[in-house]
Automatic annotation (TrEMBL):
Pathway: Amino-acid biosynthesis; L-proline biosynthesis; L-glutamate 5-semialdehyde from L-ornithine: step 1/1. The lineage of its organism: Bacteria, Pseudomonadati, Pseudomonadota, Betaproteobacteria, Burkholderiales. The keyword Signal does not apply. The chain holds residues 5 to 411 of 732 of the full protein. Keywords: Aminotransferase, Pyridoxal phosphate, Transferase. Transmembrane segments: none annotated. Its cofactor is pyridoxal 5'-phosphate. This is ornithine aminotransferase. One of its GO terms (molecular function) is pyridoxal phosphate binding. The keyword Transferase applies. The gene is rocD. Its EC number is 2.6.1.13.
């Protein structure tokens, strides 16, 4: 007989497109930091859906907010005003320190919003001829999967066969100001960059890079747009990763955790002078800022505040980092580096000894969910509600996986 797990995996393999290759775990239900599969096995969620489940699975307050809203109205589209969108945007702007926010659904949509806004700003405000605007992006970037966005990826895997791509993007090396200056022209209207490169393997920039970039952008009248889809809302131990750099961007992109672990909610934030380039009819999405999404996202922001999840991420992140460094030292030479900020860690595996994928599969078999990035990095991004006891258990499993591999 076919196991329940094989049955569900088989259906996905038969009827789905083959655009993902997850580990063989079929999730049945989840609560906070724990996940149960269809065989009744329990897992510690050390991945949190790539930082989308920062509040823990099915946070009771966020579920209750959704249920309250489901008793009123869920989706109306932006054809009408509602009772939840305004309060959500007000709260979001207060937390992030921007004058306006534009709600969308996915991270990629909010990035597309940023690109459109930057180009219009470049034309309307900076006076660049329309069609000549250029945006600088980092090598190794990840901003989503639409054709415009993969068009400026530097990863062959994300691009191959998907051309032709939109022009108007130029690359610099993440962390290298000389390459920013070399890539810029008089038509440069914006720099679009992650504060820490997530999909590239949790790459932390060299100290001082962002301060210098900020100064250069101001001097050259170029917008600094920071994509915090993965890093934002407490992940790095601050509300926003740019705070570690002592800077403020001109615009901010949020997603993932903004949906409270329940729904896709993203946003593009900027001040009047930048957001003002949008007028009615110039941009939008049927579901962006819908009544249910806004209710859920608002409650999610309040939960982060009320439960002090940002401080918790800083403290437990430091602990997770320290424990992983200890295990890495013990398992030398399997691990080349442990890096990250807050509850966001990349463990760099020496490919001479193991692939990240095989270790991720062994971790899953041992009851810990993580994610490999490329062939060499294992990424951990647990819910910010994780406990010290669960971190200890997860690290213990990881230690055993590494030591077994080395043996
Ligand atoms: N920006 C960053 C920094 C991301 O990490 C991601 C997703 N990993 C995205 C954008 C795209 O978000 P989505 O998958 O919701 O489109």
């Amino acid at each position: 007989t076919v196991s329940t797990t094989q049955n569900f995996i088989g259906k996905e393999a038969r009827w789905g497109a083959r655009n993902y290759q997850p580990v063989p775990v079929v999730v049945d239900h989840a609560r906070d930091c724990l996940v149960w599969d269809v065989e009744g096995r329990t897992y510690i969620d050390m991945m949190g859906a790539y930082s989308a489940v920062s509040h823990g699975h099915l946070h009771p307050r966020i579920v209750a907010a959704a249920e309250r809203q489901l008793g009123r109205v869920a989706v109306t589209s932006r054809a009408y005003h509602g009772t939840t969108l305004g309060p959500f945007l007000e709260k979001l702007c207060a937390i992030a320190g921007f004058e306006r926010a534009l709600p969308m659904n996915t991270g990629a949509e909010a990035v597309e919003t940023a690109i459109k806004c930057a180009r219009r700003w470049g034309h309307f405000v900076k006076g660049i001829a329309d069609g000549r605007q250029e945006i600088l992006v980092a090598r190794g970037n990840f901003h989503g999967r639409t054709s415009t966005i993969v068009g400026f990826s530097s990863e062959p895997e994300y691009r191959a066969g998907f051309g032709p791509f939109a022009p108007g993007f130029a690359h610099f090396d993440f962390g290298d100001m000389d390459s920013v200056r070399a890539a810029a022209t008089g038509n440069t209207c914006a720099v679009l960059v992650e504060p820490i490169q997530g999909e590239a393997g949790v790459i932390v920039p060299p100290a001082g890079f962002f301060a210098e970039l900020r100064e250069w952008c101001t001097k050259n009248n170029v917008l600094l747009i920071i994509d915090e889809v993965q890093s934002g809302l407490g992940r790095t131990g601050r509300w926003f990763a740019f705070e570690h750099e002592g800077i403020r961007p001109d615009a901010l992109i949020l997603g993932k955790a903004l949906g409270g672990g329940l729904l896709p909610v993203s946003a593009f934030l900027a001040d009047d002078a930048v957001m003002g380039v949008f007028n009615p009819g110039s941009h939008g999405s049927t579901f962006g800022g819908n009544a249910l999404a806004a209710a859920v996202a608002l409650e999610g922001l309040k939960v982060i505040e009320d439960e002090n999840l940002v401080a918790r991420s800083a403290a437990l992140g430091e602990y997770l980092n320290k424990r992983l460094r200890e295990v890495a030292a013990e398992a030398a030479p399997l691990v080349r580096a442990v890096r990250g900020r807050g509850l966001w860690v990349g463990v760099d595996i020496d490919p001479a000894h193991a692939t990240a994928r095989e270790l991720v599969e062994k971790l899953a078999a041992g009851g810990v969910l993580s994610k490999e990035t490329h062939d060499t990095v294992i990424r951990f991004a647990p819910p910010l509600t994780i406990t010290k006891a669960l971190v200890d258990r997860a690290v213990q499993v990881f230690r055993q996986v590494l030591l077994d591999k080395r043996a």
